[in-house]
Amino acid sequence: MCDNIRGNPFAGLFSTDNDAVSFSSQHAIGNEANDADYVEQSLDAIEDKSENATKPTNFDDKVDQLVAHVFGLTLRRDNNSCEQSSLVYIDADSIEHAVFERLMLPDPKPKTQDVDSHVVETQVITYLYECYCRLKHYQINGDLEKIIRNACQIVLQNVNTALQEPDLFQYQEVHSQFVALFTNATCKSELLLFVNGIVEELIAANRESDVEDIITKSFSPVLDIIHKEAAQSNLFTFRQQWFALLNAFSTIDPLAKLIIHHSTPKNNQGCAYSDTLLGALFSISCLPKTPKDPYDLFDKPLQQSNTVMEGTVWTTMDSLSEALYKVFHSLLRCSTNVRHLTLQWLGNCLHANANRGKLWNSHMEMGLLGVLCVSDGFMLNVGNVLLRLCQPFCAKLNDAKVPKIDPTYCSVEANNETESLQRGIHMKGLSSETCLIPTPEGENRPMSDSFGFITECFFLTHRALDLGYRVILDKFLKANQDLARIQRAYNDARTGGSSEVLELISQRMEAEMIKYLSLKASLLVPEMLCHLSKFHAMTAFWLIQVNLYVITEEGNKPSFVPTHYTPVTFPLSETVPITLRCIPEFVVENTIGFLCFLRRLSPNTFEEQGANFLNPILTEIIVLMESQHRLYNPHLRARLAESLEALLPTVDENVAPGTPNLGTFHREQLFLTHPHRQQIIVNLLHVFVSIEMTGQSVQFEQKFNYRRPMYIVMDYLWKLSEHRNNFITLAQDAENNMEAVQPPLFLRFINLLMNDAVFLLDEALSNMTQLRQMLHARESGEWNKLPPNEREQQAAYLQHIGMIARFDNILGRKTIQTIKMLTTEIKSIFCHPTMVDRIASMLNYLLLQLVGPNKKNLKVNDQKEYAFNPANLVLNICEIYINLSKSDSFTLAVSQDGRSYSPELFKLADNVLVRIGGVGILGDLDQFAKSVEEAANQKREEDEILTGVPDEFLDPIMSTVMADPVILPSSKITIDRQTIARHLLSDQTDPFNRSPLTMDMIKSNVELQQKIQEWISQKKLEKTSKANI
């Protein structure tokens, strides 16, 4: 028997001779009995073309048939058989040797020509994979099971040999053949089994210490091929086969580790990640891969519609994102160690590219940003992948379940890789980020012992959005401004420029338009917008729960994740959780930027996402606007007001025409039905007042920029009776608490409104006068006498002054309109002794500038270009007069403004109103003018009585007789109560020595008040006595 076994070529299918002997003994009887069992060929089997073919009658025949079908080989010389002639004959003493010999044949040929292509396949990997598939498809009965298993092992051994020693197979690209399998394979499950089998066979055949090196040697060239192809491809040429291969690798632990190790950059610079395998895939997008590359996807954008190209970009971007997501999803699920390596790669990549988020890099196209960091498209794709990974815990927000996100994650840094793995900390550098509230000196931030995947995924995503989506958004806004500027230059050139200049500007405009469209397309991928909406809604919901889950103790705990849902109730608890010390500001900034972008370019998203998106977002805005104790940065709180404007159900004039409009239903309902809508006005005013004194270095004009959207929000909400009543209630509360320790909110608000109106319109009118002079100099030819460089300087300065004038005119007009709106319903607080002199003098001054003798200095051509509309200003100011005209104190205050008031003032205003169509209010204004004149005459008579006023009776600031003298505690100076009350609205210090001061600290000077009253009474008595004589 042993001799027979040694002479049998199929003995090579067994691992030892004893196995072969045992197997042969078990089947001897069955073979002699002419077992009729028939092994049917698989779906891939060759159709037997021989009419005389007979069923195998013994075990050796079955094995012959299997070897013929699977390997296309015969080890027997039988020239008379048709079957044998269609196979490749190999003279070998075992199948193992025969297969290897077959692989070494440069051109395997059977005797006949008409054969299965597998028989003559020359590519090693393709041949072996087909053999493997045929073995897997082969219908097995009991006697062939072990044979097939050993045949599979032979196949896998030979694949490993080919991958490890590709030079054995001359003129063959072994690793390219392996990659090609993922293009041509019809059955992905078999391909995955094949790859897994290769790795298992490799591990079994080698010492454990050598496995990693051999894996690298075998499969790194495969990844090199994909890396090279990906680096040379673009959005329309990338191949799905790469991702099929990477998906297969990412489910097999050693190969998954290889993907990460292969993608580890050679140095710590951020841009080095672009030069890796995963980096090459992430770099594919509709944006340039490097700063030197052009924006080139939109051809001739000024001459044709770009809708088709935009749709194509969105489709391919979404396909790419989905493919990348599947790879990372598989990597994260593969094993604990692979998950650790994957998160570590993502964390290191974001940390290495942290400079992308720096303020000084926000508008850099070339230079350091391009040299040191990955591309915009790279970071956008990273964000997209992470967004998709977040979707399972974004999808269903309900009151019963709070996402398991630990707010203290960003306060911790891992000291080494072991700690990183054990505690779940893979992000770096976040502990130095500015957080929602500062940590007081001498105190610490809370820290959890460890963090789960959901926490890491959440903060990784926000960081990626901060470094990707937000930066691209900034570039888009700048590109939009550049395009508008070039458009203006183009229009100017068409009216008076040369054809050469026009051509140059046209080329520049086309290049800028391509850039604009590319950036826009990258930001508006529909699937990404949907994911972003759900992610930001979840962030808002979670952030509010963190605010309500009060944690006050410092130190470490197993977890700081909110354990239960807490409903929002106002007023909020005065105790603020110290976990807010750990949440970076960019978590809020990302949401603000997204909302403002949607309003401008995709307002339909608000309606598509509906209340599930809008409600938590508005709750977040309301809560964080309330005070600096929950969001310390006043600039960020002011930007929350901008995001509140983005939620208004108004149509943005900048939205591209032709865009389908889904209406504004959900946004309208938001301000009518939101459970906390009653808090919007009060919290908005808190923000308005708080940005006056930011405590930080900021351009003075910046506060006006912040207030612009607030005026728009107020204007919309005033039209809704419920919100208008909230304004009125706040005004009444303020009037009832005029001398509170802290000046009432509404009082501070209207005080700042008047400050802004005077400053902005004063600046605007001054700039309009300067513009008139400069334009006259240019048009009269004076500039032509200047040297070219001075002429250019003058032109630039003219443009600068024009921009400032436009800004001041717009904001000044908005401020006056807001005062007019408020005074239609709220009157008495404006006429309170603390405020009445201020508003009267403000209105008089502005009206005099607009209708008085200096108005001719304000006339310029193209007033619309500078947003200057003096007629509208005059009308609004006159309507404010009329709104407050029923108040005697206001009428008197107008008459006593010695700087700007004269009886002719309203006559001049009448003349302007007649010309601009304001005839409807002439009657009311004339009546008010008469009342003012009467009040002036009456006051003049009273003043004539009070001649020779003792200095101690006069207010030291206003030089008027004090009605209610009070003593300041620090300087001991006596001043009129209303004068100091007005001063404290803007500055809570003693005006004479700058020491801290509030209204509760002052003391009435009763003795002096009595003296003043006695003196006035005496003067009136003397006047009466003289009259009677």
Automatic annotation (TrEMBL):
GO molecular-function terms, A-Z: ubiquitin-ubiquitin ligase activity
Protein keywords: Acetylation, Cytoplasm, Transferase, Ubl conjugation pathway
Catalytic activity: S-ubiquitinyl-[E2 ubiquitin-conjugating enzyme]-L-cysteine + [acceptor protein]-L-lysine = [E2 ubiquitin-conjugating enzyme]-L-cysteine + N(6)-ubiquitinyl-[acceptor protein]-L-lysine
PROSITE patterns in UniProt: U_BOX
One Gene Ontology cellular component annotation held by this UniProt entry: ubiquitin ligase complex
GO BP terms: ERAD pathway; protein polyubiquitination; ubiquitin-dependent protein catabolic process
Gene3D superfamilies per UniProt: Zinc/RING finger domain, C3HC4 (zinc finger)
Superkingdom of this protein's organism: Eukaryota
CDD domains found in the cross-reference section: RING-Ubox_UBE4A
Keyword Acetylation: yes
Cellular localisation: Cytoplasm
Pfam family, one: U-box
SUPFAM superfamilies referenced in this protein's UniProt entry, alphabetically: RING/U-box (SSF57850)
Listed pathway(s): Protein modification; protein ubiquitination
All copies of domain U-box, residue ranges: 948-1022
Main subcellular localisation: cytoplasm
Top-rank EC class of the record's enzyme: transferase
Function comment: Ubiquitin-protein ligase that probably functions as an E3 ligase in conjunction with specific E1 and E2 ligases. May also function as an E4 ligase mediating the assembly of polyubiquitin chains on substrates ubiquitinated by another E3 ubiquitin ligase. Mediates 'Lys-48'-linked polyubiquitination of substrates.
Record-stated family: Belongs to the ubiquitin conjugation factor E4 family.
Protein name: Ubiquitin conjugation factor E4 A
Organism this protein belongs to: Trachymyrmex septentrionalis
